Write the structure tokens for this entry.
Amino acid sequence: MRLNAMKKFLFGLTLLLPPLAVAYATAFSDVPATHPYALAIAELNKEGVILGDKNPDGTKEVTTFRPEASLNRAELLALLYRASGRTPRAVLSACFPDVPADAWFSSVVCTALKDGFVQGYPDGNFRPENTVVRVEAMKMVLTVLGFTVPELSQDDRLSLDFLGVTHSSWYAPFLHRALTLQIVPERLMANNTFIPDAALLRGEAAEMIFRAMNTDDLLPSEDVPQEEGENEGTVTPTGAVLVAFPLHRTGETGARGAASFAFDLDTPGTVLVEAANLSSSDSGVSCYLYLLGESGFSNEFFVGYEENGACLIRGALRAGRYQVEVRTPNEGEEYSLDAEPSSGDGNDGFIEAMSLRTGNPRAGALPANDYEDWFRFVVTGAAEERKVTLSSSTNLSCTIFPGENVDLFGEQGPACNAIFAYQPGTYYVSVKRPAPASASLSFTIELR
């Protein structure tokens, strides 16, 4: 099948290349080398997926492709059948009232119906000449090229954080899957906006098909072991790019001033995250580190310490997949982001949190460049009114995190120095320093 004809490394390589080579500029006269989808169009032309337009005089020489024009449902279906290596069966025809037996698209539409890839509209028609829209195209690409489309959890749906996207829509699973596979051209998601019913252009269709032909099914069966690092560069359901650890990144923040990456930590350890705003230290930068659950963020997360245009987190982490995020006040600001192994003082995260017992105050200290200390306590049996008090001559921040085994029943969460009816479960307390990081601070924390 042609779907496997191109080597996967070709797509990864092209992402690193400068503007396209001259060979790609000559496929069609209206697709210059500088066109964003020139490589996809040229490669699909070489593979016989894209045939282009014939000259007006009827000669066989193909000169144009019209990458900025829209395409219809039948045209996209024909492209996908060529891309998959399937041959439409000529004996199948006239399967819809609006698909004449002598139409050029009759066999491919009727074969796709027989194969279970398409259905008609409620009125019984297929509407082959209707312009295909983006989400409709995504469904056709994923279906005809044989990708799985899992059902979505509520967290998965909420992760589709685009203007114009309805979380409960029929297309949400297909859009989520297409994003996971990275087959959606970036231009279709500019400014964190995605228009589901916008017409798909011919150049965009070529890019989408080319990417789909050069990727794997990135949601493997749980029974199939994964080779280390094989999914690097893919996008997680939360929108982060999966990278290797340690990570060292520079770039410009995107929509809402954010840039996020995910990495796998094979064994527990302490990690130091350092982020900086390279455009302006005065405007500042924020950073966050999350342990990712199966369908999104978990209850374990870290909020960075900020000072002089930099943000730092030193966290003791359990093994798992993490998302690290940097945010600048404005989109397009340059940033640097590093996450690497480090050492701490033995009290730097959820897994190192020191025990608090009722009526037994604990003295604590934040020496220079120690940004945060952690504590925990457990409530057993029925709900109990408790109070976590923090005493210090300095304005330290104190935050209480309910563990995964806590059900707050939708109530406002607990706060330090306030009485709260704690439900049964485990709670974690973060004590964080104010600037400057060079100061040595002391405090007392008590559970009452």
Summary: Confidence is low (pLDDT under 50) at residues 1-25, 218-230. Residues 241-342 form a domain with the Jelly Rolls fold (CATH 2.60.120.380). The two ends are 69 Å apart (CA to CA). The CA atoms of residues 256 and 331 lie 6 Å apart.
